[in-house]
Amino acid sequence: MSDDTKKTAVIPGIGLDIGTMNLVSARRGDKGITTKRMRDVFLDLPTSAKKMLKLSATSFVEREDDVLILGDAALELANVFGQEARRPLSAGIVSATESESLDVLGLLIKEVLGPPAVPDEVCYYSVPAEPIDQPDRDIIYHREVFRRIVTECGYKPFPANEGMGIIFAETAKEGFSGVALSFGSGMTNVALAINTIEGLIFSVARGGDWIDRGAAKSVGATQARACAAKEKGIDLTKPQDRLEEAIAHYYRAHIDYVLDQIGLRFKSIEGKFDLPRAIPVIVSGGTSLAGGFMEFFTKVFNERRKRFPIEVSEIRQAGEPLNAVAHGLLIQAMQEHEED
Amino acid sequence: MKEARITCKTRTVKIADLDIDMVRGEVVFIPVETASASTDLRVMQGAKAVEVFYVQRSQETRQHAPSAPPGRGTPPKKRKAIVTVKGHEIDEDALADKLMERLMPFVGQRVSGDVMERMQATLDDSMQQIRQALQGTVGVRPGVSPGTMVDAPEIAFIPEGIVGAVEGTVEVQEAESEGSGGVDDAAAALKAARKQKKETP
């Protein structure tokens, strides 16, 4: 099949999930859904490291004073060089003072999105909700930075809430009603929707990084090591060593904290809307991929179920926790093209 | 009458003992005796900041130079601007709105040391952003030699040209699923739900 034919088979519209740890794009291809993912991290090394990088066949971007390693390779090499990989996003939100990171983000997003399939192709990109536990941080700069980047990539940008992305991807059979929990690396996003309508959205500025940091500190390890142990395939219900045990404890504390915040926020809007029926809780995000997470979460939730302000029909994990937000955004983007 | 013609060769020069301030290209005539007596003029000449020529001027065509320079060497001239900076209007309302947006979360909070600290940090951060945005809009930018015309960059809350500032090849993990993984069904359901909502008064 020629490139041109391939292009025409693609349904216009793309979803872009911008996370602290991963950038994920999703578009409808001729066979199925094409997802592109890369780590939202980079590492800057002196130019003297170039030879070594060439020998190890690691892709890098050469600049005047240094070389940049981007994505997964950056995370792997950070351990080799005993450095922390740099994150363009901090706790889910782009840093206003990290202007260098913006340039890197520009390149990463351009690669993850690829060229638009049609002129002015619609791109729905994820934006977190305002963190309730860090009122001094807002999402305005974040939202506008990505609007600029997506526009410069040749797309028509539409910012959309991250939690609502999960609602659109995962709750069609419930008429787009449910509570979505996106356990990310930098933050945890919560969305309550009733029949496609956004009822309540907020985020807490704690996520996988908070777990790694806390667990590492408590056993004298590095955050990178805690992250690696977590991603290697930890089972939260059966920790194998001190570090894994610490990680499990921090997971528990994190889930407790998120449920506490949900309880408080939902209480504040109780009586302001009617829930005609019980709705599902959808759990998603990279941090929810740890082994035993759902068992863990359900146990903690059940301990509080009676005090939980809304009736929950079931707790289930998103079909593809790493891609659910991008899928939900893709659905909205495709819709936008259909309405045009 | 013989006079010294002093031409300024640098951006600005001050000949203190003659009480003369000059800008590049400016020419001043002073009596030879005064010029010879000036130590500062010699220093400036040695530093190639000024060029001095002794000239005989015709009284018919030129006015006699002031006999002594107790005051300024020459009457003030209309000086040419060395660097022209294109003015840009700052939307003060937009800046105020942005600042207010960032400070709004503090409204209604109980005043405590912690809140005040975070508010101050937010304010400092905002001021820093404003300063960064304003940088390069006045004066000579690095790398631009004096005397050239420069256009100040637009004041931008978010810089332009983010994409393309760093170029390179990046390895991206790509996967294509068999089937739509529920996306098509969800899209159809969403379309139906929105249609129904539109039709229902």
Outline the biggest β-sheet of chain B. Answer: 3 strands, antiparallel
Strand content of chain B: 15-25%
Largest sheet of chain A: 5 strands, mixed
Helix/sheet category of chain A: alpha/beta
Count all strands of chain B and give the number: 6
Instruction: Give helix and strand order of chain B, one letter per element, not per position.
Output: EEEEHHEHHEH
How would you summarize what this structure contains?
The complex is a heterodimer of chains A (340) and B (201). With 340 residues, chain A is of the alpha/beta class.
Could you explain how this protein is built, in words?
The complex is a heterodimer of chains A (340) and B (201). With 340 residues, chain A is of the alpha/beta class. Among the domains of chain A are: 38 residues, no CATH class; 150 residues, Nucleotidyltransferase, domain 5 (2-Layer Sandwich). Chain A has 11 helices and 15 strands. Chain A has a 5-stranded mixed β-sheet with strand order 3-2-1-9-10. In chain A, strands 13-12-11-14-15 form a 5-stranded mixed β-sheet, with helices on both faces. In chain A, β2 and β3 form a beta hairpin. The two termini of chain A are 29 Å apart. With 201 residues, chain B is an alpha+beta fold. Among the domains of chain B are: 55 residues; 77 residues, no CATH class. Chain B has a 3-stranded antiparallel β-sheet. Chain B has a two-stranded antiparallel ribbon with strand order 2-3. In chain B, β2 and β3 form a beta hairpin. The N and C termini of chain B lie far apart (100 Å). The chains are: A alpha/beta (340), B alpha+beta (201). Chains A and B meet through β3, β5, α4, α5 and α11 of A and α3, α4, β6 and α5 of B.
Topology:
The complex is a heterodimer of chains A (340) and B (201).
Chain A: H1 3-9, E1 14-18, E2 22-28, E3 33-39, E4 42-46, H2 50-55, E5 61-62, E6 66-70, H3 72-80, E7 89-90, E8 93-94, H4 99-113, E9 121-127, H5 140-152, E10 155-161, H6 162-170, E11 178-183, E12 188-194, E13 197-204, H7 208-219, H8 223-233, H9 242-269, E14 279-284, H10 293-304, E15 312-317, H11 324-339
Chain B: E1 2-8, E2 12-15, E3 20-23, E4 27-31, H1 32-37, H2 39-46, E5 50-56, H3 92-103, H4 113-134, E6 173-176, H5 183-199
Antiparallel strand pairs in B: 1-4, 1-5, 2-3
